[in-house]
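I wish you would study the pair of lines that follows with an eye to the fold:

===
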Amino acid sequence: MSVQTITKETFDELVLRSDKPVLVDFWAPWCGPCRMVSPLVDEIAEEREDVVVGKVNVDEQPELAAQFGVMSIPTLLVFKDGEVAQKAVGARPKDALLALLDRTSNA
């Protein structure tokens, strides 16, 4: 599945009502570490059919960033059953991102 662009208008449907865990990448185009993480997030979206993967551009969606207390980017949140289950701040290798999802799936 491809990465979903998440906005405040689509957040409830794509994230909160999802029957699968959702990995959400809060990012901005000017952020160097975000550009490092972005292709990894894209790969996970293509490889994992058991999760939904989305991105929130914090410049375009400041309300969502504020709602979830995003102070630094990239921030990656994993939602399960409409709640934040895991959180990682800063650039992470792909295996660390997969571990976030696996901890959520096994919880």
Notes: The radius of gyration is 12 Å. The domain at 4-105 is CATH 3.40.30.10 (Glutaredoxin). Helices lie at 11-16, 32-47, 62-67, 94-105. Strands lie at 4-5, 22-27, 52-57, 75-80, 83-89.
